[in-house]
């Protein structure tokens, strides 16, 4: 299977979804769509963040209610002027978030696991319903606690897909603990739509962008 290349992001919030790929995007989102998208993150109560390229320049845009749904993140964006291409923007439930843009990062996270992290070494944090989280570090190590949610996702992370345990991107639906989508660096993928997004959308996204043959994996 080919390794995944190019800009991509996947995000799920209730019935809203955003699957951004290097060639084709698929989404049902509260924000207006446009060409040039490089990253879309969906948050609570219809909030969103979008990074796009236009005329060779980087631009970032976010919903008006970001300042109420994620006030610390909104303040960080204004203070740091971090508008270059993001490594990750994760909008979680109950005002939680993690963002990394280059060497700059910020977060508002809860749980005992937060205190034992050196976030300088953390590349990505994926957040989900009920305190679920997955951490990916620069040294390749991972940590997760899904709180019993998201079906077979724990097995996918632990055992890998088609031999790869390295996550390229992951979306745990922040409103539905039965819904997720995951992509590994080798092109392996799995999902559970849980009636939140059309299943053919995910298949088309993977095929059109990455030319990989996917298989819905079951134990």
Describe this structure in words.
The chain is an alpha+beta fold and 219 residues long. It has five helices and 15 strands. The chain has helices at residues 66-69, 71-80, 112-115, 153-159, 199-210; strands at 9-13, 16-20, 26-28, 37-42, 48-54, 57-62, 88-91, 97-101, 104-108, 122-127, 133-137, 142-145, 167-172, 180-184, 189-192. The chain is globular. The two termini are 21 Å apart. The model has no long low-confidence stretch (mean pLDDT 91).
Which features would summarize this protein structure in a list?
alpha+beta; 3-stranded antiparallel β-sheet; 219 residues; 15 strands; 35% strand
Question: What is the compact description of this entry?
Answer:
The protein is an alpha+beta fold and 219 residues long. It has helices spanning 66-69, 71-80, 112-115, 153-159, 199-210, and strands spanning 9-13, 16-20, 26-28, 37-42, 48-54, 57-62, 88-91, 97-101, 104-108, 122-127, 133-137, 142-145, 167-172, 180-184, 189-192.
Layout of strands and helices, then pairs:
Layout: E1 9-13, E2 16-20, E3 26-28, E4 37-42, E5 48-54, E6 57-62, H1 66-69, H2 71-80, E7 88-91, E8 97-101, E9 104-108, H3 112-115, E10 122-127, E11 133-137, E12 142-145, H4 153-159, E13 167-172, E14 180-184, E15 189-192, H5 199-210
Antiparallel strand pairs: 1-2, 2-3, 4-5, 5-6, 7-8, 8-9, 10-11, 11-12, 13-14, 14-15
